[in-house]
Amino acid sequence: MDKILVNAIYIWGIIQLVYSNSPPQFQTVWAGKVFNVSEGASNVGHLITTFSVTDPDGDTMYLSAVNADTQEFFAISPSSGTGSITANLSTAKKLDCDPPRPNLITLRIRVKDRSGDDGNSVDASLILQITDVNDENPQFTSSQFYWKIDENTWPIADFTFRASDNDRTYSYNYQSIQFSLHSSSEDKEYLETFSVTTSIVGTIAVANITLRKPLDFENITYYELRINSTDNFGKGNTVSNDFVIRVQDVQDTVPVFTSALYRTTITEKITQGNTILVVSAVDGDFGVPRQINYTLLPGPCSSLFQIDSAGRISTKKMIAIDDLPEGRICQLTVQAYEVIPGMHSGTDKTSSTTDVWVTILDANGENPANCKNNGNILANYDILLPTMWIATLVGNLLRLLN
Predict the structure, then answer these.
(1) How far apart (Å, rounded) are the C-alpha atoms in residues 389 and 260?
(2) Helix (H) or strand (E) holding 15
(3) Over the stretch 192-204, which tens digit does the pLDDT of each residue have?
(4) Residues 134, 97 contacting (CB under 8 angstroms)
(5) For a designed S-S bond to 254, which of 64, 74, 275, 352 qualifies (C-beta 3.0 to 4.6 A apart)?
(6) Which residues contact 225 (CB under 8 A, 6 or more apart)?
(7) What is the pTM of this model?
């Protein structure tokens, strides 16, 4: 009986020895410690820390990172061993802390003895702070890069660009975006016409394009510009987009006569309806030209002549000596005006005038030597008329320039 009891106790001891299994133990403690890792320095194989584990029973231990969403980024080497192991925790792929990836990771490392289900496992945690580097370019979120704007839009210009930046910084990198304008040739006129300011709306940087001076369709019909978006307060990564601003014409330019001087000579007793001269004017607004009509403004000779919508000046009746002013030089004032439906024509912005000089010869074709005009003695017609031509030429040139 005693022998049977002794054998039973011996067998029970063997069973306890076989099935008793102590858990592994971490020799490294990480409580309260934060490891800072720059995403720019975290290439494959970047060492984060070294740690040690042991197993009291001398079992083979298996090491792994067990975070479901981040374990693919980390590697442990060696991943298994017996007795006591010193292992390296390194990066298995480049880290990225830009949204939506987290920048603060609590990583769990698991050590398990024995490969079967009957083994023990122990977890230890460490905290990783992934620090940001400026590795993301700003991105334009605007889809419109073509605008039309009336030339009389001043001082407001209603077009903007929007850009974002996915780099994670403590203040978010979109707040550091700066915009700048450029032209393909750095044309001074372009850069003196437009300016850009930056504002923040939510998580988006907004470029507000404004006018620095009025637009003029007759001078420039469109602008080709480039906008740069640069992060890190204008010192980081830059992306560019080209855009076009097309200037639309509005009615802001008076008609322009195609000649600077109109002069003709006729003989007295010319019959009614004879065309003596044709004047011509075009709409100064070349983008949306309108039809031009003509009229004679009241004057000493306006009762003798008439003008039609094509600019043809003709005699209104037979010219007689008694109808002529002294000196027999008629100064006609022709007004050209735009035909605007539903609008009174002949306003300052839709009309202009030019002078027409008509010299009337005697029936025998002689030219008067001396004449009076509006009470002033004109000593020499040959000197007077070139002077009048020059004055008319200068006046029309000024109208063209304005």
Answers:
(1) 8
(2) helix 2-19
(3) 888 888 888 887 8
(4) no
(5) 352
(6) 181, 182, 183, 190, 194, 242, 243, 244, 245
(7) 0.55
